[in-house]
Amino acid sequence: MIRKIAARLMSRYGLRLLGLMLLNSNTAHAQTLLNVRENSYRAAGIGQIVCGDRGRQYVSTGSVLSDRLTVLTVAHFNIQRGRSYEVDVGKCEFRLIDKKGYAVFRSKFSILERGGGLDLLNVTRAVDWAVLRLAMPVPRSAIPLELGAKTTYYDPNIKYDLVGFAVEFDNFKSLFVSEHCDPTKESENSLVTLHNCWSGPGASGAPIVTFDGERLTLVAIHAATADDEKVGVQIAGRLRDVLDKVL
């Protein structure tokens, strides 16, 4: 609740740096929550998957990859798990949002491959990914995300950030970044990532990245929060095979 209130205050008053450092005794870093209006991430190819149906709008986060036509997001971007209902992809679009909150790019898309449907998502989050193909490439001004090493290893000395959209940030109009996350593997052979990044409604699909000032390297995506545990999907296994083939 404190995090949500702080995020709303930051969004409302245009504060760039959240004054609260979100501490966790199980992590090596202090997390900082930022509004990205003036942050270097604002040029990143990170946008929204927006689906509208039956008077409702559903928002997820998606990452543009190197060919500027492929977008990675969660499998449930158009699946309403509570109602076992799937929104037609024709009612969805990908958007890039500028720092003023306006959509500067919109494109329809098709699903190249989805990790799993509703039945599998109820079993494991390892399949909670979808690879999309845009109808048109994103502008050259958007910086695409690069894939990390095929073998996922989370270095405790490297800074990992989660970047995405959430209702707490100007009602999905501002990109946010949760800095200094500590992702770990669920187990040695699991494709599921556990992390302590901040997230909120709309952040499903948000990339966990490293940023060296020039290159954005994608290592995982946020999938869901379950029982106060943040889970994501590594860029490995079948997902990595699909991306290597497409890109």
UniProtKB/TrEMBL annotation:
<dbReference type="InterPro" id="IPR009003">
    <property type="entry name" value="Peptidase_S1_PA"/>
</dbReference>
<feature type="signal peptide">
    <location>
        <begin position="1"/>
        <end position="30"/>
    </location>
</feature>
<dbReference type="InterPro" id="IPR043504">
    <property type="entry name" value="Peptidase_S1_PA_chymotrypsin"/>
</dbReference>
<keyword id="KW-0732">Signal</keyword>
<protein>
    <recommendedName>
        <fullName>Serine protease</fullName>
    </recommendedName>
</protein>
